[in-house]
Amino acid sequence: MRMSLAQRVLLTWLFTLLFLIMLVLKLDEKAPWNWFLIFIPVWIFDTVLLVMLIVKMAGRCKSGFDPRNGSQNIKKKAWYLIAMLLKLAFCLALCAKLQQFTTMKLAYVFIPLWALLIGGMVELGYNIFYVRRD
Fold first, then answer.
1. What is the pLDDT of residues 21-66, one digit of tens each?
2. Comparing C-alpha atoms, which of 87, 110, 98 is closest to residue 27?
3. Does the global pTM surpass 0.85?
4. Which of 22, 31, 35, 101 is the most exposed place for a label (fewest CB within 10 A)?
5. Separation of CA 65 from chain center
């Protein structure tokens, strides 16, 4: 089952809209919800992406797959997996801080996000300046 680009864009837009509506209601103090409930659309979307990524990576384990054909592809998928886990760690730490479950400094909450941004800049630089030597 494959989703078209329009379906993926629509799904992303709907989850983002739902998250922003819930966030505005929480910030306007119209809804006394827990911060973990506010982030449910983000976590559902991330879970769908993680499952799709893991299924694609597991497809490399089937018999008859030649590992030499996609060595760059598996590195990219591994980076995507690490990026998703860093985003998840940031969201969980942020919710815990906002809900006052922890007395962690705000600078420590943002460490996964900073690592994600630095990794993204390294990946971008690698893709821009990489010269293939065959």
1. 999 999 999 988 999 999 999 999 999 888 888 888 787 776 666 6
2. 98
3. no
4. 101
5. 27
